[in-house]
Structures are given as C-alpha cells and as structure tokens.
TrEMBL record:
Gene transcribed to yield this protein: pcnx2
Transmembrane region(s): 36-53, 59-77, 321-340, 383-403, 423-450, 462-486, 498-518, 570-593, 599-619, 754-771, 791-815
InterPro entries: Pecanex (IPR039797), Pecanex_C (IPR007735)
Protein known as: Pecanex-like protein
Pfam families for the chain: Pecanex_C
Subcellular location: Membrane
PANTHER family found in the cross-reference section: PECANEX, PECANEX-LIKE PROTEIN 2
Amino acid sequence: MVSQVVQTLRQGVWASVTGGWYHDPDQNKFNNSCHLYLWIFLLMLPLSLHLALPPTTMALSIYCTSITVFFILIKLANYRLHLMFDEGEAVVRNDLSSPNPDQAAPLLQAQQRPPSRAEREEMRPGSAMGTGKMDAEIIETVAVKEEMDIQRSLTETEREQERTTEKDSEQDRTIEKDSEQDRKEDCEHKETADRETADEGLPPSKGSEDESEEESEGQKEPPDANNNSLETPQDRQDDSIDIPELPAQIGLTDIETGVSCYVTEEEDSLDESSETSTQEKPTRKIYYKLKLLPGKWINILYDRLTLLALLDRNQDVLENLVAVFMAFLVSFLGFLLLNHGCFKDFWVFQFCLVIASCQYSLLKSVQPDAASPTHGHNQLVAYSRAAYFCIFCALIWLLEQLLRRKDLPVSTLYGVTIVCHDALGFTYCFPITFLVGLFPQINTFTIYLLEQIDMHFFGGTAATSLISAVYSILRSLIALSLLYGFCFGALKEPWDEQHTPALFSGFCGLLVVFSYHLSRQSSDPTVLLSLVKSKIMPTLVESEEEEEEEATESKDPLPEKLQNSMKEILLSDVVVCSVAYILTFAITASTVFLSLKPFVTIVLYALAGTVGFVTHYLIPQLRKHHPWLWISHPVLKTKEYHQFEPREDAVLMWFERLYVGLLCFEKYVVFPAIVLSALTNDGFALSHRKNCDVLLTTVAGLKLLRSSFCDPSFQFLTLLFTLVFFHFDCPHASESFLLDFFIMSIVFHKMRELLLKLHFILVYIAPWQIAWGSAFHAFAQPFAVPHSAMLLLQTLLTTVFYTPLAPFLGSAIFISSYPRPIKFWERNYNTKRIDNSNSRLVSQVDKETGCDDSNLNSIFYEYLTRSLQHSLCGDLMLGRWGNYSAGDCFILASDYLNALVHLIEIGNGLVTFQLRGLEFRGTYCQQREVEAITEGVEEDDACCCCEPGHLPHLLSCNAAFNLRWLAWEVTATKYLLEGYSISENNAATMLQVYDLRKLLITYYLKSIIYYLVHSPKLSTWLKDATVQEALLSYTKWHHIERDPQVFSVKIDEDYVHCLQGVTRASFCNVYLEWIQHCAGKMETPVDSDEDSPLVTLSYALSVLGRRSLGTASHNMSNSLESFLYGFNTLFKGDFRIATKDEWVFADLDLLQKVVAPAVRMSLKLHQDHFTCLEETEEASILYEAITNYRSSLVICHESDPAWRKAVLSSRETLLTLRHMIDDGTDEYKIIMLYKRHLSFKVIKINKECVRGLWAGQQQELVFLRNRNPERGSIQNSKQALRNMVNSSCDQPLGYPMYVSPLTTSYAGTHRTLRSIGGGALSFDVIRSWLCSKWLRLLRQLNAVLNTCTGTVWGGVSSSSQLLLSTAAIFFSNMQLSLISKLLHCLDWT
C-alpha cells in the first residue's frame, strides 16, 4: 500500500505538476539524468533569455530557433533509433566490457560472471601478462568481427546466442572448479557489486548459471509499465535474449579497413578512480547497425525498452512534425507574452515553469494522465498540455491587442459589456489544473466544445464522434448564414404594421423549414453518406456488400433498415417542408400577429402552458409506478399491468393517443406560432438596430425552433420562467422576448443540471442511509462536512461547464472531473462476439470457443439492442418511459437481463442510444441492488417507529420518505420488448441412467438414417464405386463390430450379448423398419430391403457415428462425464475419425450433412421423450416431428456463426448444448430459447449520479491505479445503485457483458405509432391515399346503386345505350356498370 502511494505521488502527482518529469528508481542513471537536464534546460532557457536580453524580436527569434532545432534533433534521433529497432540488423559479437561494470550505466539486461582471482591479476593495470592478454583478445575480436557481421533474422540471433550461452556456461563451470578460494573471492566480489548497484537504484548483476533461480529472477530489469502497449512481438524477442550488462558504447566501423574504435560513457567520475576496478573476459553483445552513409554505419548498443523509458515514441513522420510544430508554437506564444510584459516578478518564473512543462510533455508525457480515459500509454495526452497552452496564450495575446485599440467595438447585452478582461491568471494554474484533471485530452475537448456550442446556440443535438461534432456545427453555420442574409435584407429598412415585407415572410418560412429539417437529421452522417453512396455508385456498394457477405457468411439487416428509414425521412421532408413553407409564408404575410397583438400572444402563452402542463407533467405523473411518490399504483394503467406474462404487443391506450396528439400539437403548432409571433412583433425594433442584434435574433429563432421540434419536454417551463422573470422580477433587464426566451433556455437548462447535481449529492451523503464500502469512507464522512462551501462552489462551476462531480474513491468527498460530451466515453464500440468465424482453429479444437458465460450470453443483449432500435423512439413518443432528455440513463430489469440504456441524441423522430448489458449472475452487491429495484414498497405499513398502516391506494409515511431519498425511480413496470426466454435443463440429470443414454443413441442413429435418406446426394453415394468398395465388409452378415470401448449392451440397443458386438443382422432387427419408413416417404423409390446398399450405408454410418462418439469420449463412454464430454464435442462439430472409418472422406457431406445434424436432432428428440413418450415411439410421429423441427427449430452450438444469425433473424425457437465451467463446477446444460415478449421494469436514474460515478471510477482506476477488486467504490449502495452503474463502465474499468455501438432508433419503424399518424408523409403515400379514397368512393357508390330497383338496362333508351357503349372505350367495367346503374336510377332518356 505504501509503495503504491509513493508511486502515485511520484508518477502521478509530481509528474503532472512538472509536465512528465520525475525520478524513476527503476531506471538507470543515464535516463534519469537526461530527464533532469532536459527539464532544467527547457526551464532556464526562456528565463535566462528574458532576463538577459531586452524584449525584442531578436530574443524571440533566438529562443524559438533554439527550441525548434533542439526538438528536431531529438525527434529525428528518436525516430531513427526506433526505425533501426524495427528494420535494422541485430549483430551478435564477442567483445570486452568496460572496467568495473558496476560503475557503468547498464543500458541492456545482462548476465555476467565475476572474474576469478587469476583473471583479475592478469587484467590488473600494470601487469604485462594482463596487457598482453587484453591485446590478444582485442586482435582476436577484430579478426572474427567480419565473420559474425552478417545479416540474419532475430530468431537466428537467438539460436546463436543460446549456443554461445551453453559454451560459456561450460567454461564458467570449468574455471570455477579450479580452486575453492577463487569461488569465495568471486562471491565476495559479487556481493560488493550488488550492494553498489543497489545503491544506484539498479538491479544487481547476474552470476553464473549454477546460482539459484530466485536470484536470477530478481536481477532482471523490470520493463516500463507505461510503455507496454508500444512493445511489439519483435521487441519481446529482443528482450528475451540474455545480454551482458555493459555501459553505453558506440562503435564506429569502417567496412574497408575493418578498424573499430569504441567510446565509453561513464556515469560516475568518482567510481572511475576506484581501486577495485577490474576487466572482464570477452563477452557477448548485441549491436544494431545504424546506417549513416553508404558504406558507413554506427553499431548501437541499446535496447528499445530503455529508449522508450527515455523518450516517448512518435509512430510516424506526421506525429514528429506535429510535436516539433507544437514546441515551436509554445515557445513563440509564451515568449511573446513575456516580451509584452504580461508577467512580473515571481510570475515570470512561474510562467517559464509552465512553458517547460508543456514542452517537456512533448518529449516524455505524463503516463497515465489525470484526464486519460484509458490504461497504458495514451499518445493524445502528450499534445493536450501544449495545445491548451497555445489556445489560452493566443486568446490572451489577441485580447491584449484588441484592448489597446481605441475604436474597439463594444456591445452590451442585459447591461453587460461583451469584452473579456485579463485572463492571464488562469495560465498560472496550469500545473494544478492538469494535476486535478480538469482538462480532457484535446479530441474530447473539441467534441465537447462543438457540441455545447451547437446545442445551446443553434439548438443542435448531441455529437457521437469528432466527425459528428464537426458535421453538426458546419451544417448549423451554413443554415445560419443563409438565414442571416434573408433576415438582414428584410430588416434593412423599417416597415409598418399594415404590411409585412415578402422577404421577411420568406425568411420566416425558411427558418421553419431549416429548423424542421435539421431536427429530423442525426448528427452522425454515416447513414446519410451510405444512402447517397448507394444511389450514386450502386455497383461499388453492391460489390462491397458481396465481399462483406463472403467474409461474414451472413448479411446484417440493420444497415439496410437504417438506410430505408433515412430515405423515408428525406422523402417526407420534401413534402412537409414545402407545405410548412407555404403556410408560414401565408400566415406571416397576413399580419395576423400584428393586427391581433397582444391578444394572440396571450392566447398562445396560455395554450402553451396548458398543453405543456398536461402533456409533460400531469400525464407522466399519473402513469408512473408511484405517482407523486405517494400513490401506491399507477392511476393510468396499461392493459398489460395486471397480466402475468403478456403474449402480444402492448395495446394502444386512449391516454397514449392523447399524449401523442398533444405532443404533436405542441411542437408543430404552438411553439412555432410563438416564435413566429415574437419574430414579427420584434421586426420593427430590429429594423432600427445594429447587425449584431439581427444575428442574435436569427440565432435565437433557429435555436428555439429546433429545440421545440427535438425535445419540447421543458419548453413550457422555460416559457413560464421567461415571462415571470422578465415581466415581473426584472422588467428593466428585458431586451426582446425572443432574446429573453433564448437566454432563459440556456439558463433553465443549467438550473436543471444544478438541481440534479444537488439531488445526487444529498442522496449520496445522507447520513441515515450512507453505505460505507471501506474504512476510508468512514474516515471521509465527517471531514466532508467542513468543506460544504467548497462543495457548493464546485457544484456551481461544474454546472456551468457541464462536468461531472465525482465522489473521491466512492466517499462523501466530491471533486470535479474534466468536461465531457453527452456520450461521455471516448471509445467507439463495435462489439464482435467470439465464435468459430473469428477464432483460431486450435482454440476451437482444444477448448470451448468463448465458453465463458459473458461471451455466450452477450447475444441476448445484442438482440435486445435490435429490439430497442425497432421500438425505442416510438415508445418514448408514446410516453411509455416518462419524460426524457439527452443524457438520461435508464435501467431495464427483468428476470435475468439487466441493462443500462444511455440516451445520447434526442431528435425529431429519432433517438440515438447505447445499451450496456450487465452480468446474468452478478456479484453479491449487484444482486442486492437488483433486489432493491424489484421489490415493492406497497406492503410497508411503518410510520417512524410504529406501524399504523396506510390509507387505501396510498403509501405509508416511511415508504414515501424513502422513495424521496433515492437517486432513481421506477417509471414503468410492464414494458414489453421482443426477446428470448431461456429454459435450461441439466444434461447430467437427463442422461444419468443407462437407459436414457441408450435412448439418446437410438435417436442418434435414427436421425442419421433420416438425414441420409433425405440427402440429395443419396443416389450418388449409393452408386459411388469407392464408397461401395470401402463398405464391402459391412455387407457381410457375419461381420461383427467388437470394439468394447465403443459398443456396450448398456447404451446400444442392437448390441448382441453373446457375440460381444454389433452385427448387420442386429442392426436390421432394430432399425430396418425405420429405414423402410423413411425410404417410403421419398418421391423417387429406393431399394430398402435387408441386402440393399441403403441399409449397408446406414449400417456403416451408424458404426461411424458411435465410434466417433467413443473416440470423443476418450473411449470411456460408460462414464457419464466422458459421455457428456464426447457428445458435446460432436455437438459442436468436432469429429475424430478412426482409421477404419476413413472411407467417409470420399465425401465430407456425409459428415457435415448427415452425421453432424443427426447429433443435434437427437438431443431435441431425447428432450421430447420426457414430455410425450408415446408419440416418439411411433415411426410416423417421429418422422413428422423430425421434419417439423428441421424447418422450424435451429439447433447448433453457440460458437457456430449460424447461432448468432438465427438469433438476430428472430427465429422462433432455438436449442443448444452449453458446457458451463464456473467456480469449479463443470456442467452441461440443454438450453432452449423461445421468442416472446419480455416484461421489463424501467428505472430512471439521475444522470448526474451516473456521470459522477463513472468519472470517479475512471480517476480511481486509471490515475490513482487502485487494483483492489473489492474496493469501496463498487460496494452496493441501494440509494444510488452504485455497483450496477460502476459495473457498466467501459472495460477494463467496469465489466459489462455487452456494450452496443451507438444505435439510432427511428419513429417510422414503430407499428403502433404508425397506426396513429399513418406513417411518414411522402408523394407515394399521398398518391396511395388518394387512390384508396377513390376506390372506396366507387365501392360506396356501387353499393348505393345496387339498392335501386329494376335491372341495369331496363327502361333505358337506345340513345343512352349507344352512349354507354361508346363510353366503354374510356371507362373500366366497374365504372361503366356504375354509370349505367346511375342512368337507370335517374331514368335518363
């Protein structure tokens, strides 16, 4: 624990303050010294230049040039060295080490032997023998150099090194046996060297190979944990080589002359004068050739891990250029502010420290950073500090230049001057802000900033990615620029009340059209681009789809479904936008808003308040599980409320029709009329104002209309607060109603967030329900009380900047996190289930593919996501989930499925969401929280300390009080979704008795016969000479199969006890009737007597099938465990064919189309045996059952891709055999899936609670590195559902079973909603509607005419008959009949 805290303080806290520099005792002195000197250089260079030189352009040029050249050299050397490690040549050679290896910087992992006393005497300076031997060894090394400097792969290098290691070990053992005194001296020398090395913070050197393994393992240099993600397989091969521990040496070799010279870098000058320095014998070293010029290279004695510990790696040239450019920009902007005199006294040093930290992070960044969302090395974090520094410095410099201008354009709004004052002080706090983690990585900040601007200023929706954010803001700016041109032209000249300019009416029409169309489009352009691509380049799209189908062997219907929905929306918008433009133009041109002022506005305000109150407050409260948290049951109940297991779709209720009608009336009529009325009434004042006010009006109109179309849930409250505040509280502060409404929409949005945060804090820290998960929680609880003022300040700031307020380590102390978009997590999921199509063959054969429950059960959450994609948007519009907004989080809870649904984007007729499925059998904490949300409180009769009961249909006082102190509430109890109910049976129980196993084998063989007879290749197999020759032995009646490990009287019905085996006669005695029955059902007759080839082939396949089962059971079929293991092996398609049965390889369809499906069908037949015993014994009923199951039932292993395809295709019934290994249990389960409507409880969680808990987990696990699986922050807390929320985090922070990609649900796919409104409006729909109405009119007219008396032609004159005959050319028979009947009834002559 202490070491972890020290490591966090060193690598987290201190490194965040300095920009990445800290002393790492696990690294050598060379790396630590380089880090220190680099940081000092970056700190002192700007400080010294600023103090020594005057603030001129020359000083700025010197500083920027120095930093740029310095970074270019470092990045170039770093990139070239990494390229050498990737593509260079590794050369193994014998060479001398430097004197006293303990004093050198060990840049590679080493294995060396201390020299003996005789060797030390020989190598001692001044010894002639030692000098001569050293010279001889140097000459010998140079001579053999060219033989060993050859190009070879890394694996060859390893083999050579292993062989050399063996030789060295033999020499070591020989030398060490010379004298016992030498060995003692060697040990003493090693202990001294180890102590000296440990003092330097380095691992001790390795001794000879006869030392203990524990000492050898402890001497390895640990790799850098922050750079594990950058390590390649080739690197790991390099690291596995044992290399002598040597100082940093650089050898310059000339090929032509063969002369080598070495330059040795020592770390400690004090150690150089040591009298105990020795010289080692020639040892092995690995060099990398760094080519500089043709024919010239440098041998580098270095390794990749040490280089990664020294400097961060930039993967390509572009990253290096960006890093150099960022370093130049930091130096330029920072020194520019210093030259302008923005900083004085001590703050100059502080600002230089900030500059140094930003530049140092480009060389060696903080890993992990406080704002890093992932474990390991995060490349984007390296640029974040420099990017933020450049942004703030550029803004400060720009504002300084603007403030020095005398003609600075100043505008006022609500009495506030729109001029930014001095923001220099914020740059001082850079080290602290990065330490706390208030700045996200730069891509997250870009998404967040663009999303907030688009939502609050243009009425946009949430962004799902960086491309989505840029796309959304660009389309909003394009629409705004077009609207501003029309608005500016219309308001350029004043106009009177009796006449509204046509240009202004056109502007209003375009405003409504653009707002409606933009509200109907998703922020993600992927679906729109795919639709456009399919229309423009259909051939290319078809070829890509064919390639994907070949790769996946199944086509996903979801992309096509999304394209159809998008196409429907676009066609509908053409009609609706045309009609909306004409109506808006006509209404605004009629001056109705000016003529009836203020009567129209008062009526519209009252109508908006009334409709909004009924739609968004009264009806949702009456439909809640506990209305107003006092009533014990819903007032407005659905038909499914009292049903135990609903079997049909949810019935449309009258209040749902009312809700949809009021919702459409509100967002398509009331609020557009209010905005248009405000625009018209403010037109006179706007025509006399500046261009800035015209722009603000355009922005306000666009934002209010888009918000009304997308999410009108809180528009009526915003309108109410606008009227009350600006008409009664502060009337003097009002600008215009449109701007007031626009400002109040932003303020009200922030106020709602503030209330949610305060509710979360109060619920979480309430002392009577606090759940202390650890001792730290109990310690932090009382210390959080004195900091309530700071907590309130944090709450206000986090509300303004839309940042989560996270409980520190799950305690009652709250700290701010960095701002995030509504999507929250940076990762984009496209989860792929592990099956046989994406796993190695060896994993499929040796073990179960994806045998863990999480992988197998994830398919149910994937299907649940598809069901929600089909119906979620429609259900939200029907009010079945209550009120909702962007960012809301819901939990769907059923018997075994528990999923968190995160609503991300709320549009007009579309919803983008993400589903996070939790474990089926969760932890103890999860089970306690599931019980909390599923148990009812209706039976609670307590009031304080007594139990007086409660009034009918009301909750008790304690129950009502407890419900108010929860961060969640139940909004619906019977929400229906299409899904699969799971029934499972223990296979061991069903096969415990030998008779039941015998029955399974019988069904197995009968299924083989069935599939054989129904195979289209049967005639080919019966006539195949190769097959007939291989089956010649099976045609003999006296042939006996006597394999005792396969055939047994206990499980084989055709087993002959006296012959100890199975014969053709015994087989025919049992299965001949079934063969003849199956053959009789064929269209073309096949000979099926006892001597027929069909019986021979059936007999051979029956023997093959049983022998395969015995082989898979390891020839232990009598054991239940072995039998189940073998049957499961065959069930998943793993057949081990014996030598006797190799004839089946003549056509593999005999295995794949006959034996394999027979194994699976036998399991279903054996299961039916327990429900209808007498039916399965008759051949006709059994034959019909197999035929029905073959078409209606999907039977396959869960690792088969056909299983996922069947589930996503909504097949009615599926069956599989699952091998479950969990907590020491080894079970086989027969699992049946039945498609039906699943009933869920819908629980709405405080979204600020979810965001805060997610942010706390990320900080605790990534930055603070808490590895405790039972940490206090994930213990159960029923009032906040802490365990369920935290377990739904992104992996590895949480452990969700399945995380869906961002999925968009459209209202047009909901059948019930289409039945109310008739679906999307388009020209085809209009044409179809007119045709249907015309045909209906004709049918009604025909019915009326049929009631007339008399015949058709009776009483009609000849002239009328001639006229009708002529009309027959132009009319159909129906129309001619109707006309004749009409003439007869009117008696036209």
